[in-house]
Fold this protein.
Amino acid sequence: MKRWSGIIAEYKEFLPINQNTPIITLQEGNTPLIEACNISEKLLNNKIKVYLKLEGCNPTGSFKDRGMTLAISKAKESDAKVVICASTGNTSASAAAYSARAGLACVVLIPNGAIALGKLAQALIHGAKVIAIEGSFDDALKMVQLLASQYPITIVNSSNIFRIEGQKTAAYEIVDALGTAPDYHFIPVGNAGNITAYWKGYMDYFNLKQCSSLPKMCGFQAAQSAPIVEKKIIEHPETIATAIKIGNPFSWKSAEHARDASGGIIESVTDEEILYAYEMLAQLEGVFCEPASAASVAGVIKKNKENYFRSECNVVCTLTGQGLKDPDRAVMRVSKPIVLKPELNSIIKVLNL
Ligand code: AN7
């Protein structure tokens, strides 16, 4: 039996490492790619085949681990002592975990009161120094860039090229699993690193003739946090999908490049559309992702209504993070438990038996 050893060991010929790079891994990657048959049947008239790439199955519960294993390994190789990031939650959780494993000090700046509790818990329990900025993610990222320009601290946001390099391996896995590239790839967009990374991954494989076609890259932002769609910086982004509540994405230009070079789109979905997809994923497919992740499937539902797809095509949706990170949102969305005394009759009545 072959044991999966994490994305660096598995894809080392595609990654910027050498014999001196210490590999800091939690065996991230190799995430499931499952078919969403029920969503396809019930919400899309069986017109298209939909696959879900379950990135919430990574060790810290999000896709960030793919980039973080490489960023932290390279930081360790260059003898860094301290790493830093700004985060809407998942980057900080991942940075804190991989730093703990590497024996590096980790500083994370988060927008105060605006990240999901599970993510905050992760950063704290892994021993990061957590600073809550009274401002937005964009304010926190600005502070990180200023600090790292003046002090010997390594940034592990997606401005760190090793993050993008690691994250591109998800595209390799998809092609390895399907035997070909999908027709469309739908993905949530926040700081826009992941759409950049997937496009790089697909291009790598295409250039190496591992696939003979390329997907159209279709990115989705939340409606009131959609700077790329509106072509302007959003000073006060709003959305319940806190992971993608970003008004001035770092990888703005490269996301536009991925869209244009692939013939894809970057559009927005409303919070209600996101929450509907979030609930449908849970109730029709048994997949609990976080709200931001559901933006990809919300995008598919929306574009299908607009007749965007040609029939018999296939679509991969990246579900970027695990639903348990933000359980409050789930409890808010659906009906509460029915509280009863321990009496058989009252239970029977409620169950209509
Ligand atoms: C679940 O953690 O930016 O477009 O600081 O956590 O690559 O930014 C998170 C982003 C989608 C958007 N889904 O990805 C952070 C952070 C989830 C996320 C995104 C994020 P990018």
